[in-house]
Amino acid sequence: MKIAWGITGAGHLLSESVEILEELVKDHKITIFLSNAGEEVLKMYGLYERVTAITGGYYRELALDSDQSFSYPISGRLSLGKYDLFILSPTTSNTVAKIVHGIGDSLMTTSVAQAGKGGVQTLIVPVDLEIGDVETILPSKLELESCADCETCEASKKCNQGAILPKTEINLLKCIGCGECEDACPFNAISAGKKITIHMRDIDIENTHKLVLMDGIYVLKHPNEIMRHI
Length: 230
Ligand SMILES: Cc1cc2nc3c(=O)[nH]c(=O)nc-3n(C[C@H](O)[C@H](O)[C@H](O)COP(=O)(O)O)c2cc1C
What we know:
Elements: E1 2-7, H1 14-24, E2 29-34, H2 36-44, H3 48-53, E3 62-64, H4 76-79, E4 85-91, H5 93-100, H6 107-117, E5 121-126, E6 133-137, E7 141-142, H7 154-158, E8 164-165, E9 169-170, H8 180-184, E10 190-191, E11 195-199, H9 202-212, E12 217-219
Parallel strand pairs: 1-2, 1-4, 2-3, 4-5, 5-12
Antiparallel strand pairs: 6-11, 7-10, 8-9
Helix pairs in contact: 5-9
Bound molecules: flavin mononucleotide.
The site of flavin mononucleotide has 20 residues, from helix 2 and helix 5.
């Protein structure tokens, strides 16, 4: 099959999505679409290299929002029905909100619109699904209560990206999620993959419900369900 797979800037269900993507790419031609935030967040969670490693070749490209200017020419493949399926996983509340309001002002939202026009079925895994609390995972974080304010910050010294501001925070826009700082700090002041609980907003859940009612779109609860639809 020829598949387009979009990744937006959600940390929730991100590693689970990448795992399924890595499985699917073994048997299918997959073009990977990244929203600007998707590109950044993949780096923060140390997953960007894994995604780029499975791209290369015709219909196996990495399509970046930032490379697609304002009109997103690659989305034309969807309006021409060149893909058998468009998968969006994980999908942020921001992208869901735009889709349900018919907005097409980014690579991802334009591609969903073009898939609808080209009769390409779209599978969407939204991260905001049901009312209530959800456990999610953070990227690397400097835990100030554990930081000993050492004269030489070993974690900062180890970081090739210059992402650590000692005794302050990690600049996530520089962080590539390699985890080296975590190992370098003798006081375990850097956490990675810490679990937190977040509350789902009513507006985001309402938007997900609207998504379920849209033609040509099929909403899945988890990336694990994608395989059943291939
Ligand atoms: C570390 C990190 C994790 C994030 N995780 C989520 C998330 O799970 N769900 C969500 O809706 N937004 C999340 N965001 C915020 C989105 O990246 C932000 O709303 C962005 O504008 C979404 O753009 P996009 O929909 O074009 O990808 C996260 C941001 C950061 C920095």
